[in-house]
Amino acid sequence: MSPFAIALLAALQVPAATPAARPGSATGSGTPYDSTAAAIVTMGYRVGYVRGALGQLRLIVFNQPTNIVSGAERTRQRCQDLERSAPEEGRRLCRSCLTASAQAAVERYRRRMEPLRALGAECARMLEPLAAGRGPVAVDRARRTVAEVNARAEAALRLYEGDLALVRVAFGWAAPPAAAPRPR
Questions:
Q1: pTM reported for the whole predicted model
Q2: 8 Å CB contact between 21 and 33
Q3: pLDDT tens, residue by residue, 66-106
Q4: Residue 116 has pLDDT above 80, yes or no
Q5: Is the pLDDT of residue 36 over 80?
Q6: Alpha-carbon distance 70 to 176, whole Å?
Q7: What is the C-alpha to C-alpha distance for residues 16 and 173, in angstroms, rounded to an integer?
Q8: How many C-beta atoms lie closer than 10 Å to residue 26's C-beta?
Q9: 123-to-76, 126, 132 alpha-carbon distances in Å
């Protein structure tokens, strides 16, 4: 399964129960828990959209070079959406609505919002000349730019997905990773 598919599936998995919520806390609509869950899902979508747009742009520069400008513009818009959303969704993450262990995972996830914002800004900045059609939009230059953007995004998103995995376990949306077998 592709990393894009994994990120999208992770974002779409909505909890059936709320094991991370503190005993006695309301988990109905509009609670801090709900806004935290919604922020996590929203960021999952944003990350998935960026991954998908970067994948499409990579295909365009190698297979349809006449569409580079429009593909770069779509991808740049997705990167700008990520840049805008990361700080907003980071503020929606609750600071005390979960158990201590779950809250630690959310705090780690919250710290990932600034690097995601920076990734969105950098991605948009790097693609802006291609999207604006300024200068020579040479296919080789476009391929190098897209390859560089993809490499930087992949590195940043790998870290994000590691933190997301911890949050998914903390919220009960995924099973904890199995322990490695002990050597005999």
A1: 0.78
A2: yes
A3: 888 899 999 999 999 999 999 999 999 998 889 998 999 99
A4: yes
A5: yes
A6: 42
A7: 8
A8: 12
A9: 7, 5, 14
Other beta carbons within 10 Å of 151: 10
Non-local (6+) Cβ contacts of 18 within 8 A are 27, 33, 171, 172
Q: Which of 71, 77, 68, 17 is nearest to 49 (CA)?
A: 77
In whole angstroms, give the CA distance from residue 51 to residue 32.
28
CA distance 136 to 66: 13
Separation of alpha carbons 171 and 57, rounded Å: 34
Amino acid symbol at 127: L
Q: What is the pLDDT of residue 10?
A: 47
State in Å, rounded, how far the first CA of the chain is from the last one. 33
What is the C-alpha to C-alpha distance for residues 14 and 147, in angstroms, rounded to an integer?
33
Q: Return d(Cα 155, Cα 135) in angstroms, integer.
A: 29
Helices (H), the chain: 3-12, 32-63, 68-92, 100-111, 113-132, 139-171
Q: What is the pLDDT of residue 182?
A: 81
Residue keyed to tokens 């979508």: 45
Query: What's the average model confidence in pLDDT over 104-121?
Result: 96
Give percent of the chain with pLDDT exceeding 70.
Answer: 82
Which residues on adjacent β-strands are paired with residue 21?
98
Here the tokens at position 119 are 């990734």
